[in-house]
Here is the input.
Amino acid sequence: MNHEGELNERTFPEVNSQAYSAVQVAPYVVGELEFYQESAPWQGHWQSLIRQNGEALVVSNADGAAVGYALYKKKRDEQGKITEIALHQCVAIPGADTEAIIGCALRSLYAPLELDCTRSTYNFNKSNEAVITMLIEAGFTSFIEQVHMVKTFKFGDKYVECQGSLSKLAENK
Here is the structure.
């Protein structure tokens, strides 16, 4: 998904804004969370992003407990101005206030909202409906889709999984 230019200040509404806060952390920190998504494409894992100057944030509740996270990458021009922010993962702990947690994460990672840049997702899981819905409501559109495939092979008494991806241009609906 992709969005060019500034975002409206009402984008990603603050639901229960007193209850959640986001703090930037080293990418490996999200890998230690019990709800870290191991099934994401490898390009979106903290191990891949850390080698490419990727960034991460953790959303915490009022008690300081981690309830969500995001992995993303910011690209800058020669002067250091942000030209693109690409989201790789954005996850709320199961059973939590998903909308408020995801909203907090998206507001933080795509900030400042008035910045004129490209905001996108990269190898993002379409089944993450809470994030997809918020991005569509913010004016993001699909430009490419990727199908993630897993095939299990049996070798003797062992099973081995192979994973791959196929990309295609998205049909904007």
Q: What stands out?
A: The chain has a mean pLDDT of 86. The helical segments are 27-31, 46-50, 98-109, 129-137. The chain is about 20% helix and 40% strand. The CA atoms of residues 11 and 138 lie 6 Å apart.
